[in-house]
C-alpha cells in the first residue's frame, strides 16, 4: 500500500507538476533496478497513481500519456539523468516498443474466484474492451507469486482473496512469451461487494455461470474468447475435486445469448465520491 503525499486542500494553488513528479519518483522508483526497462516499469506504476489520484484531486495538473510522463520526469527530476540520456539517444517509439516487449515477458498472477456453490466465477472487463477475463497483473521484482496474485486482485476488485486462496494446482497458461498463473479462490458469497481500487482499469465486474460461459465459448462469442476449452475444463476439474465427484468436461451444447449475467458499472461518479472521502479521512491509496 502506497502512502499518501499530503497536500493541503486549503492551499491557494495546487501542487506543481514538478513537485508531484519528484514525490512520485521518491515513492515508486528505487535507486537500484536491474535494467532500464525495470525503471520504466516502476515509472509506469507511478504514472497510474498520477492518473488515479493526483489528476482527480487536482484537475489543473496536465493529462499526460505515458511517454510524455517519462519526458516530464526526465526534465523535472534531477536524479533521473539516465532517462534524459536514453531519450536523447533513442526515439520514443523505439523506447516504447522495447518496453512493451519487455512487459510481454513478465509473469502474471491472478485468481479465479468461485462462489459458495462452485457454480459461478468472478470476471472483470477492462475499459475500452467488451472481453471478459479474470483479475490478474504483472509480478514485481522478487515478488512471491501468491503475494502478487493477492495484490493484483485486490487492486482490480477491492477484495482480499488470501483467506480463500488455494495454493495447490493453479492454472498456468502460456500467452506468447508470458506465463499467466491463476490460483483458485472458492466459497466467496455472491453478495460480496466488489469495487476496483484503480480508476481507469476495470470497468465491469460480474459473477458468470460456468455453464453459460461454456455455451458462449462454444458459440464463439468474441466477448468470451479469453476463455477456452482447456481453461473451462480446468475449472470443472477443480469443482469436481472439491465436490468429490467425476468432472463433466466440456461438451458441445446449444449456444445462448450473453444477457445472463448481472453486472456493475463503475464510473467517474463513484470514484469522485471514493477519492473525495478518502482524501478527507487520509486513507487514500492505490
From TrEMBL:
Subcellular location: Cytoplasm
Domain Nudix hydrolase: 104-230
Domain of life assignment: Eukaryota
A Gene Ontology term for the protein's cellular component: P-body
Keyword Signal annotated: no
Pfam families, alphabetized: DCP2, NUDIX
Molecular-function GO terms, alphabetical: 5'-(N(7)-methylguanosine 5'-triphospho)-[mRNA] hydrolase activity; manganese ion binding; RNA binding
Family under the similarity heading: Belongs to the Nudix hydrolase family. DCP2 subfamily.
PANTHER family: M7GPPPN-MRNA HYDROLASE (PTHR23114:SF17)
Name of the protein in its database record: Mutt nudix family protein
Top-level taxonomy: Eukaryota, Amoebozoa, Evosea, Archamoebae, Mastigamoebida
Amino acid at each position: 500500500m502506497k502512502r499518501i503525499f499530503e497536500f493541503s486542500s486549503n492551499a491557494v494553488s495546487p501542487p506543481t507538476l514538478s513537485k508531484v513528479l519528484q514525490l512520485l519518483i521518491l515513492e515508486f522508483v528505487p535507486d537500484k533496478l536491474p535494467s532500464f526497462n525495470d525503471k520504466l516499469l516502476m515509472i509506469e506504476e507511478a504514472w497510474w497513481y498520477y492518473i488515479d489520484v493526483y489528476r482527480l484531486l487536482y484537475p489543473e495538473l496536465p493529462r499526460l500519456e505515458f511517454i510524455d510522463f517519462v519526458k516530464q520526469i526526465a526534465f523535472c527530476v534531477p536524479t533521473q539523468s539516465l532517462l534524459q540520456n536514453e531519450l536523447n539517444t533513442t526515439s520514443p517509439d523505439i523506447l516504447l516498443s522495447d518496453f512493451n516487449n519487455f512487459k510481454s515477458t513478465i509473469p502474471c498472477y491472478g485468481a479465479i474466484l468461485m462462489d459458495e456453490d462452485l457454480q459461478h466465477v468472478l470476471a472483470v472487463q477492462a475499459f475500452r474492451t467488451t472481453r471478459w477475463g479474470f483479475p490478474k497483473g504483472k509480478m514485481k521484482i522478487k515478488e512471491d507469486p501468491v503475494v502478487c496474485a493477492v495484490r493484483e486482485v485486490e487492486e482490480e476488485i477491492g477484495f482480499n482473496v488470501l483467506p480463500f486462496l488455494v495454493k495447490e494446482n493453479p492454472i498456468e497458461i502460456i500467452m506468447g512469451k508470458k506465463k499467466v498463473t491463476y490460483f483458485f479462490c472458492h466459497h466467496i458469497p455472491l453478495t460480496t461487494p466488489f469495487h476496483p481500487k484503480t480508476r481507469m482499469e476495470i470497468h465491469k465486474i460480474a459473477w458468470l455461470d460456468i455453464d453459460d460461459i461454456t455455451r458462449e465459448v462454444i458459440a464463439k462469442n468474441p466477448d468470451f474468447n479469453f476463455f477456452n476449452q482447456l481453461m473451462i475444463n480446468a475449472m470443472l476439474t477443480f469443482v469436481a475435486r472439491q465436490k468429490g465427484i467425476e468432472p463433466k468436461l466440456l461438451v458441445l451444447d446449444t449456444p445462448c445469448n450473453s444477457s445472463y449475467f448481472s453486472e456493475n458499472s463503475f464510473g467517474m461518479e463513484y470514484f469522485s465520491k471514493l477519492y473525495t472521502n478518502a482524501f478527507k479521512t487520509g486513507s487514500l491509496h492505490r
